[in-house]
Amino acid sequence: VWFSSNLRGLGRFDPKTNQLEFEPHPEGIFANGVDVVGDSLFIMCRSRLYLSDISNRKGQHFKNDITSSILNELELFDLYVRKVGKLSDGRLILLHGGNPTVQEGFRRGKNYLTVIGFDYLERGNELIIGSENGLRVLDSNGLQYLTVNGEKITRSVYSLLEDSNGHLWAGTDN
Question: Using CB atoms within 10 A as the burial measure, which of 62, 68, 103, 144 is most buried?
């Protein structure tokens, strides 16, 4: 089980051995989040993103800073990643906090898609995005509000889930 532990860095708990270990960032930067995608381990540290492997052990996780390649491809100046996932087309999706250089709310690239938001669901050719500005849909026309019964959902949406019946569930603060 992987987790972020702010100043203590990247955490790993092995339920088989009941062992807990931490790897702090070499520069003392907080580890704000961690996501596992296949065998890849993405570690979020403020405005940096590291790519490691789940088979790596302590001392190896902060070696591959991929922030520059993302910033260059997407023509961004800064990046604060909240969540990382992999889309069906093979690109990585990076959900991040507000960014003044991303006025449209998203940027598409060859290897990455970045969207301002907290969570996402991929449904066919569109992405449902939960964000601080509400429930949005990203498709070939861009990013728009998702309407339900003719109404826009504009309150913050922090998490999304699609149940086995295809119903969309949204976690909000209201």
Answer: 62
Compute CA 109 distance to the chain's CA centroid, rounded to the nearest angstrom: 16
- Within 4-144, where are the H helices? 67-74
Spell out the long-range contacts of 31-36 with Cβ–Cβ below 8 A and sequence spacing 24 or more. Answer: 31/4, 31/5, 31/6, 32/4, 32/6, 33/4, 33/81, 33/82, 33/83, 34/2, 34/3, 34/4, 34/10, 35/83, 35/84, 35/85, 36/2
Residue 173: how many CB atoms within 10 A of its CB? 7
Residue (of 148, 89, 159) closest to 124 by Cα position:
89
Tokens representing 27?
Answer: 């520069």
pLDDT digits (tens, 9 = 90+) for 145-173: 998 899 998 899 999 999 999 999 999 88
**Is the separation of the CB atoms in 156 and 171 below 8 Å?**
no
